[in-house]
Amino acid sequence: MTPVTLVLVTEAEFRRAEDVFETADGVRCVAVPEDESALARAVVDRGARYVIVGSVRYAAELYGALPRGGVIARFGVGHDGINKQQASKAGLLCTNTPGVLDESVAELAVLLMLAASRHFSKLTADMRQGTWALGPAGAELRGKNLAVVGSGRIGQATARIASRGFGMRVIGCRRSAPASGAAGDCESVTTDFSVAVREADYVSLHINADADNLRFLNRERLAMIPARAWLINTARGAVVDEQALYDALATERLAGAALDVFDREPYVPADPACDLRTLKNVILTPHVGSHTREANRLMATRALQNIKRAEARDFGAMDLLNPEVLELKTKS
């Protein structure tokens, strides 16, 4: 009989793609708590080598609980919650699921722009309270200026939907100059944030939360955005200085913000006096960018695929986040 590989999956992620995890060939997936201490205990108690985790930050115990050659597979694309350096020292392979959630997150980014442009939150709240009122006039997205900050797959998908679907003028912003003719659906691409946002009606963030991007959108950069503009963030909360954003929104230095991600999740304001939930020009969703039936199934399938490739020692085909671990494994 072919041996079955045990894979521990954090509870929230297991429930998002339960059918995939329960019917996958050659593996037995077990739902476990996402809390690091509880997850580490489950790894040791069950003798597990493989875990699939969400966006929770893992800082210590998990890396000591898994055996060398084990895998921490991220159910999703962002991986700032996993300490790759620590994992490499422990001989652990870390993976994510790139490319399978691009459309879901990009569609949410555009949805948030639409909700902002048509005062959707206010109109819905009024209707629930029995108030029938037109309220302030909305605006079409057609012809509006969108600055897409970050040129990865999700940023490119957002630019495509906005440009081709809604006739928006899209300006891209990235760290390095693109190759000639590589602007995609952006009218132009620049490495200068101030140039990208100078005429923006919407600024959509699509950058990761690596060390260089922490608090990327600070007071200085917020001041570069026109007062009429809305900020859209479906990337990572850590790339925004939430205190500076609150101040800009409260003083109407910025028209509004539609946020799906936060520095601390579930959202807790760093300062109780500066709670984004109290502002009328803010739209908030609980990190649901990739939470569609389609993306959930694809993320589960890809995470399991990475684990099976690790089992087969097909490391080159994995979505490996810390390739340096292979060199360390060779030396050890």
Give a quick set of tags describing it.
single chain, 332 residues, alpha/beta, Rossmann fold, 2 domains, seven-stranded parallel β-sheet, five-stranded parallel β-sheet, 13 helices
Question: What would you say this structure looks like, in words?
Answer:
This protein is α/β, with parallel strands linked by helices and 332 residues long. The protein folds into two domains: 5-100 and 292-331, Rossmann fold (3-Layer(aba) Sandwich), CATH 3.40.50.720; 102-284, Rossmann fold (3-Layer(aba) Sandwich). The protein is built from 13 helices and twelve strands. The chain has helices at 11-16, 18-23, 36-46, 61-65, 84-89, 102-117, 120-128, 153-166, 193-197, 219-222, 242-250, 293-311, 324-331; strands at 5-10, 27-32, 50-53, 71-74, 93-95, 145-149, 169-173, 188-190, 202-205, 230-233, 256-259, 282-284. The strands form two sheets. A seven-stranded parallel sheet has the order 8-7-6-9-10-11-12. A five-stranded parallel sheet has the order 2-1-3-4-5. The protein is globular and about 65 Å long. The protein starts with a strand and ends with a helix. The model has no long low-confidence stretch (mean pLDDT 95).
